[in-house]
Structure prediction request, 345 residues.
Amino acid sequence: MSGPRSSRVTMALVARTSGVSPMTVSYCYNQPDRVAPETLRRVLAVAAELGYPGPDPTARSLRRRRTGAIGVVLGEHLAYAFEDPQARRFLTGVAEVCRERGVGLNLIPTTGEDDDVDRVRSASVDGYIVWTTVDSDPVLDVVTGLDKPVAVHGGPSVDGARVVSIDNRASARELAARTFTGARRPAVLSFPFDRERRPRLDTGPDADGVTFPVTRDRLRGVHDHCRDAGFDPGRLPVAVVARNDRADAATLADALLDADADAVVAMSDQLAFAVLDAARRRGLRVPDDLAVSGWDDDPDASREGLTTVAQSLHDQGRTCALISLGDRGPGRAPEWTVVVRTSTR
Prediction:
């Protein structure tokens, strides 16, 4: 025989050679516990001798209408999944469920280009998780129109999908109350406002114009506190970063301190660390000269004495994974708490 034998060996040939039915051969590969041990050994030995590679996984998926994988739509370049601390903790929770359930994980990067929709639609997955994206992302219509379970982390809220997120507005309101105590010139170091990701320093931007739900709700929560405290949100300096990165945020952290900010709510611990770095370079005392807070309770937050919003992105990743596999998941919103440390007054 010339060429690979496996290209000409079928399940039916294995069944005839073994003296069993094709269904028994199928059970040997897919449900071996249903086959007598001696029969299982004989069939697998015959298959190995004939060069039979086993049932075709593509055909098996079509028959079962299951692929054995879930897809995570990142809304970012692929490296983001490994570079961003928040994304890593979230995806660790997703991967943990995949391991427990014996399913695969398909990372699907999208960046707002025209081919995003086709890439998402053609993914061979049983359900989707969408990392927080903008309200108008066309990918949302695609994933909710495929009759597959969908979880959206952080928002936006759309029909046909379940949102998994803490109450970002309420947590921001409480965090700002802690951070702005005694401040004369409060400020915010913010996540990107939209897909353009244009870094800038603005004064009193309108939260309603922000298209990322997490950013919008956190800014609204800060504004809520400002109004409670009799401070006009229209006077609030807001520095907007291009991405959640400590090094990239350094320039904007300096810009806020150049504007004499004496209290900064940063929308992540990584951004808060950039503010603390800038304060150290200038010899400022924290919290006497400058109060700082963040989100997520990063492992380094305690060492830095950072006041922050604690939430479990790992647990939220697990919840999203369970939903994408068709489970109900917990019926309540994820928990959060403000952890007060020495970086605020």
